[in-house]
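Usage example:
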Amino acid sequence: MGTVRPRTLCAVRDRRQAVEIVFDHATKRYPGRASPAVDDLTMTIPAGEVCCLVGPSGGGKTTAMKLVNRLVELTSGDVRVDGRSVTSLDETTLRRGIGYVIQQVGLFPHMTVAENVATVPRLLGWSKQATRQRIDELLDLVDLPARDYRSRYASQLSGGERQRVGLARALAADPPVMLMDEPFGALDPITRTRLQNELLRIQQQVRKTIIFVTHDIDEAILIGDQIAILREGGVLAQYDTPDQVLAEPADDFVARFVGTDRGLKRLSLTQLDELQLEPANGAAGPVLDGHTTLRDALSTMLNEGTRTVVVEGDDGTRQMLTLDRLTELLK
Amino acid sequence: MILAGLDVFANSLDFIVDRRELLLEKTWEHVELSIAALLLSILIAVPIGVVLGHLHRGSFLAVNLANIGRALPTLVVIAVGFTIFGIGYTNVIVALVILGVPPILTNAYVAVDEVDRDAVEAARGMGMTPLQVLLRVEVPLALPLLFAGIRTAAVFIVATATIAAIAGGGGLGDILVNQAAYRVEGLVAAALCVSALALAADGLLGLVQRWVTPAGLKQQISTFEPDVRPVV
Amino acid sequence: MAEPVIPDFGEASDCVAENRFFCTDWVRENWDPVLQPALVQHIYLTAIAVGVGFVISLGAALLAHRLRYVERPVAIVAAVIYTIPSLALFQLLVPVTGLTVTTVEIALVGYTVLILFRNTLAGLRSVPAEVLEAARGMGLTRNQTLLRVELPLAVPAIIAGLRIAVVSTIALATVAAFVVSKGLGGPILGALRLDFRTEIIAAGALAVGLAIVADGLLVLLQRAVTPWATARTAT
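Running the assembly step on the lines above writes:
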């Protein structure tokens, strides 16, 4: 299931332009350890894009992410946000301009949802009215009606709701950059999928530059515009679009990491309505809507034992996809 | 003021040396009284607490008993006991036991109640009778906390026995309430003795507590810290 | 020592003459001159002791929270003081500070410090790690984290400690009568010497009642100040 459900736009005005993040030979060494946690990481994350950092445990992906908001300090090299080195700012000021979301959320138990979300605006001295307005906007954005959720406490929320509040809290002061450390890892699979899609929807509107750490390659493929694979010892194995990583893994490690079913995974990157297909002309077969992925289409063919499926677009027109056509597309 | 104080302390040390038979006698009385009261309290409180904890019943009473015990001013208990029993040993022992039972009972209850349920279930699953489960699994695991309660009670009893002198209890309290006969130096000497006694009791029981804790249970038991569990 | 009202056998009621356990007429007559002042003094003694003890232990706990090595020495000193029987502690202080309220207060403060220090420190340490990480990542300074996150979350443990401290101090303050004639211990001691039951029971009941009321008030305070702790948990 990798469909993005489009929604109507919300009235969230995020004034600030997204910015670029640059890792320039960034290295982190812990004293007493033989190999570095992050080793000479060099890559550029374009403004407004989501970069997923994936890799095995101990691969240094969380450490690399934390170099950006200086929860971990660089040993050598540099990290630049919007052209300025992260070391040029005092760390508290830096962090107030970066949204930070972690797996266990870390909502303040003694504050209501509204107070939690208002934390950074309050630190920055926003007016009460501006803050209130912003909270309402954000709760709306993450699909938690402000009327119901403003005054609730963390203990009264489900896991999914808590993480939505965490997201709203991170977005509150309208930071151009977001750091997300396995944010959906502690949720059940259904909630996780829901929130992944929510994130994609929100990102379409707010266009932040996001670094998203995950150990789940499928999640990375779904969410990422770019994928950075780090191997043990914090070395960058490959930095590319999801499609490229799946089509042409840089080495055996990457190939093994993305899985031997990477051919199938690639299919989930394309939706049926993005393809050039023949009109159905009365062909028989199971009907799928245009937002179905190629992968799910193939799965349907296998389940139903047919070689043809009918694709119905949003405007009602019908096209058809045959197994032969699909094989051609694989090349 | 401080200098005068130091003077008194110096004199009290003299007192200790000069009147050591008296002090020894009184200390011994004190120890006797405390041990008697402690043993009696243990005899009453431990079985009740352990059984209640094993059955997981009566939690409200058991937990709040310690709070009630803490709230009872020792002086009040002794005074009220005095009105009932008059002067004498009975009154004092009753008062000491009334004050000594709550911490032991509460701790015994909580200690057994909070024993790892999985361990108990495994034991039952292996075919142990309830009594065997109690004696072979629950009690050993509960011992550290149980001893913490006994420690608290012991210190409490030593302290209360001091005040019990006004109701005829004997012990070092006799000196402490009798300024006329023994003067400030005597009082300070007695105070030092009883303090040493209390600290020794606490330390000794702390060692026992540590000795009694199974090696597997990782517990930070300081020889000096009494058990004051927060009640939330 | 406080002067209990010596029953005047000429005018006193039968109840008092027979030294029954509780004579309401005596209580009514002596509420103003004897019982109420003693009660008020007792409240003062307790309030000052707990107040000062709280300030000291809060400071010590904040220090121990920042500097780990502070904890052990403070805990040991406080524990030693706590173990010394109250009467002994009073008498040890008398040569230095005399037969005054100060002596009593110093001892009472000493007793509260152990409980309050322990509880405050435990409360500060009970803040979940992810909450602290989120706070740091969001750009809160150390002091802001302390004031806005750690201390508020430590309040339940602190109030639990206050409850124990208040109740214990009320009980201990009765022993103060051995040193200076203030508080409910005065009437009790005096009546003990004369074997006058009603006064003992009356004053004793007041002491216990005071403890119960104070404990109840603190429970209410905690509910009022931490709405988030009593909010219903979700599925």
